[in-house]
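Study the following:
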Amino acid sequence: MVKKKRKIVVEPFDDIKIIGICTHLEDFKIAWHINKLLNINLVKYSDIVNEDGFEFSFYLYDGGENSNTYNLVEIVNAGARWIKFKLPTDYLIVIRNFINDESLANVLDKIKHIDGVQYAYIIDLDLNPKIDAILEDIEMHEIDIVTSMKK
């Protein structure tokens, strides 16, 4: 009799929700609107440089240990697109730590109503496996920023 091996499958990015945004607004303008509507303080840090050498704007808000962390990340710059989705997407909002469905729907609704936003939608991580690499880059970039702030 052959023993069955049990596997533990761990999702690499638990408690992460991603909102895709299509807009013609510049990064600082969309960040300002999001800050105002969500009562947070996204701060611009050094750009993320992808594997092809293109730079993309990066904003961070850390609500603390028991709150959400928000990243606003540009994914289109100077004609270069970091990742392609079925829908044209210019920015990602990455929300880390648990957020219930009602709160997420509220955030999405507020973003949809920003003047200049054509549409916003929840990105399904299961349907977009290439996004894992971007999430790793975002996380490493954030770690670099936090580490340099502590020095």
Remarks:
- The helical segments are 27-38, 101-112, 131-150.
